[in-house]
Amino acid sequence: PPEERERVFEPFHRLRPRSAGSGLGLHLVQQVVERHGGHVAILGAPGGGTIARVVLAPVRPVSPGTP
């Protein structure tokens, strides 16, 4: 749900209270990705699927003409 999207990165937050997870998964993903210069976004629409987009910074700048 859209109201949950802002909370998914909070430690120990779970959409379903009785789920088997610890509620740390997305929090840890966000921490690791941000420490490497990237970011994580959660995208989705009510009644549709959810996409977790992870964007990481390149290891080195790409030179013009590099495939």
TrEMBL record:
Keywords: Kinase, Transferase, Two-component regulatory system. One of its GO terms (molecular function) is protein histidine kinase activity. Transmembrane segments: none annotated. It catalyses: ATP + protein L-histidine = ADP + protein N-phospho-L-histidine. This is histidine kinase. Its EC number is 2.7.13.3. It comes from Massilia aurea. GO terms for biological process: phosphorelay signal transduction system. The keyword Transferase applies. Signal peptide: none annotated. Residues 1-60 form the Histidine kinase domain. It is an enzyme of class 2 (transferase). It comes from the Bacteria.
